[in-house]
């Protein structure tokens, strides 16, 4: 599902809301999650999962084409851990 499909689904399920308002709500939620993660905060949506940021240390990597050693800088990457309810639903429980 992509963002526009999510917006359309919410708008269809809530006919009392205008589509532009639903779009603004969805965009605000995503922006708040992104802003919180940029600050290094953890975002938990009970039953769904938790978004956090993990630090990857600098290391020596390899260029897959040439096999040459390449220095990879330290970086921060997003991480998602599923919640129990989501895991149970995916596994048919």
Question: What descriptive keywords fit this protein?
Answer:
3-stranded antiparallel β-sheet; translation regulation; HU Protein, Chain A; alpha+beta; IHF-like_DNA-bd_dom_sf; two-stranded antiparallel sheet; transcription regulation; IHF_beta; DNA binding; 3 helices; 93 residues; 2 domains
Outline the structure in words.
- Heterodimer of an alpha and a beta chain.
- Pfam families: Bac_DNA_binding.
- This protein is one of the two subunits of integration host factor, a specific DNA-binding protein that functions in genetic recombination as well as in transcriptional and translational control.
- Keywords: DNA recombination, DNA-binding, Transcription, Transcription regulation, Translation regulation.
- One of its GO terms (molecular function) is structural constituent of chromatin.
- With 93 residues, the protein is an alpha+beta fold.
- It has two domains: 1-39; 42-93, HU Protein, Chain A.
- Helix content is 41%, strand content 29%.
- It is built from three helices and five strands.
- The strands form two sheets. It has a three-stranded antiparallel sheet. A two-stranded antiparallel ribbon has the order 3-4.
- A hairpin with a 3-residue loop joins strand 1 and strand 2.
- Helix 1 crosses helix 2 (19-38).
- The chain is elongated.
- The mean pLDDT is 95.
């Amino acid at each position: 599902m992509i963002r526009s499909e999510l917006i359309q689904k919410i708008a269809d399920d809530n006919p009392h809301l205008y589509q532009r308002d639903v779009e603004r709500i969805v965009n605000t939620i995503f922006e708040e999650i992104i802003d919180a993660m940029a600050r290094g905060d953890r975002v938990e949506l009970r039953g769904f999962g938790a978004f956090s940021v993990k630090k990857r240390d600098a290391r020596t990597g390899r260029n897959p084409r040439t096999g040459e050693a390449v220095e990879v800088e330290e970086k921060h990457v997003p991480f998602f851990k599923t919640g129990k309810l989501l895991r149970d639903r995916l596994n048919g429980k």
